[in-house]
Known about the structure:
Mean pLDDT is 82; it is low at 8-37 and 544-564. It is globular and about 80 Å long. Strands 1-2 form a two-stranded antiparallel sheet. The protein has helices at 2-24, 38-49, 51-57, 59-64, 67-95, 102-109, 112-148, 159-179, 184-209, 216-221, 232-235, 238-245, 247-252, 258-261, 269-297, 302-306, 313-358, 377-391, 400-425, 427-432, 443-460, 477-499, 504-513, 522-540, 548-563, and strands spanning 65-66, 224-225. By secondary structure, the protein is mainly α. The chain starts with a helix and ends with a helix. 73% of the residues lie in helices and 1% in strands.
Amino acid sequence: MAELENGLERHLSTVEEKDAQELGKFGYKQELRRDWGLMHNFGISFSIISVITGITTLFQYGLVTGGPGVMSVGWIVVSVFTMFVALGMAEIVSAIPTAGGPYYWSAMLAPAKHSAFASWITGWFNLLGQVAVTTGISFGLAGLISTTATVKSSYEATPGKTIGIYAAVLISHGIVNTFGVHILRYLNNTSILLHSVGVTSLAIAVLAKAPTHQSAKFVFATFNDGTGDPGWSIRASPAYVAACGALMSQYTLTGFDASAHLSEETKNASWSAPIGVISSVGFSSLFGFFVLMSFLFSIQDFEGTVGSAYAQPVLQIFVDIAGDDGAVVMMCLIMICVWHCGLFSMTSNSRMMFAFARDGGIPRFFHKVDNKFKSPIRTVWLAAFLSFCLALPSLGSSVAFAAATSIATIGLYISYGIPILIGLLYAKDFTARKGPFNLGLFSRPVAFIAVAWIGFITIIFCLPTANPVTSQTLNYTVVAVGIIAIGSIGVWLVTARRWFVGPSKEVQEAEQFGVDLLEPGALEEAERKAELEGRERGELSGDSKPSELGEDAKAVEMDAEGKK
């Protein structure tokens, strides 16, 4: 027994040394405690994907844009193509097992002369996606709260009231991210439990409690076009409606890059992190399909569910099978899950903005960490403000929520696709640095399919989904995506190309100091310590000049400020 324990300790020690050596190849010192295994890495992405959030908030959209057949079959198709994206991302994570996201991957994979431009474009699309996904989650929660409040009460849901609730939700997320950074880890563990055990119990309860169940033909072959009169299946084609209806599935399966962000805290990261990415997508696809099937098979009256007085079909399903009180309890569980998902979406959003501000992608005013709470407070509330603004069109638009989720999906997947595309275009350089997770001969075909799929959904989700197209039914996704695309490229050509260097400078400095770039304030603190140490060494040696390291850091900072 003692020999077994000693052998296990030696094995763990060897794994930890290998992880540190792997990280050292990129110039990083192991600073974060590497105590998360594969299951915890997977759990983070699984809870952030949050299939219950996407399915519940877009269930009405799915029923009118294709119906049960498109929702069920579409989920399978989308899951398959999303797995290609996950495989392409997994190769990148295995090759670069550091805590950076798409913004950093693009900078590190692109040739030196294109590195800054690649990170600039990726950063802006990632920022758009991050803001929009926070909007989609939290505004969806506001809608759920507003509709659930109408059960057994005289409360009347209006766009104005929903916006008010939405503001309160964002404020609650902002407060926790401002003052409660130390409890985020514990809330994350709660979120994983709720999204696994809680949602599984809910889906089983719905199936068990339903008085009758729909046939397989209804679930997999029923097509419904509620996009207008006439609907888009007549004005265009049923295929058009089916393609647009895939939004529910694609929006749900986002956020799996979280496994990459935790790579520096995961044991055997060059293998565990990519497996975490793939397994989170695979399990979320299967788990989400189970939840979706439980809802679709439990519909008691299709027309009554689509035209529900609550304007929320999932709530109507719960009322039909469990009564008003049971429905409220079930919805409360879902709303708690969605609240946690929105909380961590804002956390990720604020960290990305903080990093982008450090490089000048957005004003450096937002590159500030509160010394007391160790939180990038300015970017937390910037994320809340921008997310609130993105939902304001809902006051006069009937398709605003669907547009917000389209923007989120397109923004995030473009930021996923750019580093995959760079690896495809510069395959020789990428192949030379690949890690243990290597697709070999399938690498380029997988990357091509992933990029092609992202291009397809970028076009499809910009198209109108309501007929006739008016100021109230316009899908303003194309406007938001167009502004970011044209604006970011335009600013780059006019001015940014002269001073924006991307994260390359910070990557080099982080490599020198051995810190995690995604930890707000870590790089700045390391620079301050280095300068102080340099001064102390200078005083001890009788030299009044600061050390070379301090002088260089100061010169770089002054040069950067001068360029701006």
